[in-house]
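Need fresh eyes. Consider my entry:
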Amino acid sequence: MALGSDTAAFVEEHNAPLLRAAAETIAESLATGALLGSSPALAQAVRDAFLAENADAGEAAERRCLALRKAFADEVRRTIASTPEVSYLAEGLGTHSAAAPVRVEIRGTAGRTLRSGAFLVGRAPECDVQAFGDSTVLPLQCIVVSLPQGILIADFWSGGATHVTWRSGGDSCITAPVMEMASPAAASLLAAHSGAAFVLDQGERTVIRIGERTTITLGPKTARATATTKRKAGAAVKADLEAATAGSATKAPRARPASRSRSPCTST
């Protein structure tokens, strides 16, 4: 649905301070590992704003809901782009007219692709991805935002109940808060269990638990996810080989006796 300029301007004007505060909190969480729920007042205000209206109430309501999600996604991307520690997540911002779509499944079924830039996950009927029949899922469990370099998960409300349980790749594709004492992969899993914001790789298939009986799965279907992971692994190996070749080419050769000459890559 096309958004009217009046609707978008109205939504942004009346929510700009709140969206900016939420975006700044998310960027800080990504950069430092700070908990998103450290300000209950902000968490409550964000929840109230997003659950104030149901998109199914009519065309005007649908336009306002879409405009709110778009304004939030735009604010989050701008704020992340201006935060040095995590600005790489916004590389390419402005080069595409629309956010990358995100495929989501609930409880491993009912897969669909969302293209709104940001969407709500929770038990409330106002959520874009609604979890029926599980009282342990909050009315608004988390907000998902498509970034140029990943998929952001922001949960201001559960205190860490929203967490990764499985992902298709075993490398450091999942980006996370900058933690000096942890590898990127380990830091991402710590973040996903601590209540901090975390970011998933667009090409990975990731399962996230949001309730005792409910998971959501983000990312491509299994076959495509496997192919994507293999391509990335191949690209990483190629890059390492090229870097090694370039490094050896710039070094001056060291004279050695012929009988002791051996390639550093030759096994013994």
User: Anything to note?
Assistant: The mean pLDDT is 79. The beta strands are 102-106, 109-114, 118-122, 129-130, 142-147, 150-154, 163-167, 198-200, 206-211, 214-218. Residues 222-250 form the longest helix (29 residues).
